[in-house]
Amino acid sequence: MVADGRIGVRIPRKQAKVSGHGQASRPGDVHEGDEGMPEYPLEPGRNGMEQLGRALLEQAIGFVQSLAERPADGTAAGGGELGDVVRDMLMPPPAAPGDLAELLERVQRAMGLAVETAGAGYFGYIPGGGLFASAVADVWARAANRYVGIAGFAPGLAAMEHSVVRWFCQVLGLPAESGGGLLVSGGSMANFSAVVAARHAQLGEEMARGALYLTEHAHHSLGKAARLAGLPANSVRTVPCTPDLRMDVDAAAALIAADRAAGQKPFLLVASAGTTNTGTVDPLLEMAALAAQEGLWFHVDGAYGGLFRLTERGRARLQGIELADSVTLDPHKSLFLPYGTGALAVRDGDRLRAAHAVSGHYLQDLEADRDVPDFADLGLELSRELRGLRVWLPLHLYGTAAFRAALDEKLDLAEMAYRRLAAESLLEVPWAPDLSVVAFRLRRVKAGVSDAAIDAANRRLLARINASQRVFLSSTVVDGRVTLRLCILSHRTHAAHVREAVDIIVSAARATAAEG
Ligand SMILES: *Cc1c(COP(=O)(O)O)cnc(C)c1O
Fold it and tell me: What does the pLDDT read at residue 469?
């Protein structure tokens, strides 16, 4: 029974007996009306808040404490559980109040029916984190429900977000005076705003002939960003890679020249600083030079890898990122924050503002602050959540050295996994990791086995690895070949977990190869 959301988490029935009505009243509490119903059911008094808060905090703590025992993929359960839970969750809300304990039980089941993205065994795609400090900071942030779209509404909190963004700029080596940016929902949104800013700065209104350059390994959110930014489909030009999966800069230069000759308007060069497929870093210095020479905006998608610049090795591997016009970061990946925390850092905050700022009459009472930007002018969102606290609190609470150490640990672990997997004769591990992704696949051990058969064997290998329920990996296609990948990024993943993952991979590889 793998999809049991209840593992290790007890529902505190007594405490949790909180619903829209019936909580004990005391001075300061909401007064109950004649029928025992609170007058304002949406506004619990102190007791109600404590009971609700305790019940949910208990859930959150119990959940984190149960992570070690949880299956790596809670969706893999049979027995109709999946359909039951989904059907249950699709039910519309009732008119009358529900019972909190019962509701939490239902939510627990849904929580359990999930790929364990918060666990140490999650190596799929790009792992997220979910620092507990951020989670509880969000409770406060949301209870206070501060508005930080316009700095004047909550200057200290806008400054908090701005300080986080300025720190990102500093980590990246972007200029302190002109640099800026904002927190967004994730890397996709950051890439979108970067493409919009580049388009606005470079093309103005003439976007029909615009052309941007990236490789086949660039994240698909960039193609999506181009489309949403109103650029035609053929504006996205795919530059070939060298055999080490990095942009071939000479090929980029040739493509740009050919496009110019054909009347296109090259405007944006996109580098990946850590591709999602293999964690490969494009040749940033050469690309920055090409962008400067050609007068293109240079965007670096560092959603996965950019923050490795905190480490010594990352700094060396990300050389040139400091020359970018814009950099996408995903603190919900490489700073271990909960999902919903992306960032865009730019060389020149004014250019970001120029691309996004639009006003409305209903905003006439709001005056721009000089020191801290109005984030509503830098991105798509007007009403936006207070994201700053969930980043600021852990950075100040644990100190930046703790994050540097954690990222360094991930680099060590990736090197260890690479060495061990490369030592296994059944596997090929074609690329030493630039950062913390190790890509591998079953090798062709017998002559005459078709590519299709090897691909099928690699798919079976992935299924076998994940069937262990201790780890969760994902696959991709590189050079036309099904390729598995181990991405080590969670703050919860340590040496013992990676050793176990490698053991599982190796024994699954042997079992798969033995099938013939
Ligand atoms: C994850 C990722 C994105 C997309 O970010 P979201 O936060 O998922 O929207 C973009 N680029 C790269 C390289 C990524 O790894």
Answer: 97
Which of 280, 304, 487 gets mutated to test ligand 1 (max ligand atoms within 8 A of its CB)?
304
The predicted-structure confidence for 114-129, as pLDDT tens digits, reads as follows: 999 999 999 999 999 9
Give mean pLDDT, residues 354-377.
81
- Are 486 and 505 a contacting pair, CB within 8 Å? yes
- Could you report the per-residue pLDDT of 330-355, keeping only the tens digit for each? 999 999 999 999 999 999 999 999 99
Sign of the torsion formed by the C-alpha atoms of 208, 213, 215 and 221 = negative
Atom of ligand 1 minimally distant from the CA of 186 = 7
Q: Is 145 helix (H, G, I), strand (E, B) or coil?
A: coil
- For ligand 1, what atom is nearest to the CA of residue 189? 9
β-strand pairing of 342-346 with 180-184: antiparallel
The CATH number assigned to the domain with range 136-398 reads: 3.40.640.10
Higher pLDDT, residue 39 or 409: 409
Amino acid 366 reads L
Ranges in the chain annotated CATH 3.40.640.10: 136-398
Distances (CA, A) of 331 to 105, 190, 340, 459: 31, 12, 9, 31
Task: Report yes or no: 280 and 243 within 8 Å, Cβ to Cβ.
Answer: no
Residue 29: exposure state from Cβ atoms within 10 A (0-12, 13-18, ≥19): middle
Per-residue tokens: 104: 């939490």
Amino acid (1-letter code) at residue 288:
A
Q: Which residues contact 19 (CB under 8 A, 6 or more apart)?
A: 97, 98, 99, 100
- 195 C-alpha to center of ligand 1: Å? 14
What is 402-514's CATH number? 3.90.1150.170
Tell me how far CA of residue 492 lies from CA of 55, 337, 454, 461, 489, in angstroms.
25, 12, 33, 25, 8
Which regions of the chain carry the CATH code 3.90.1150.170?
402-514
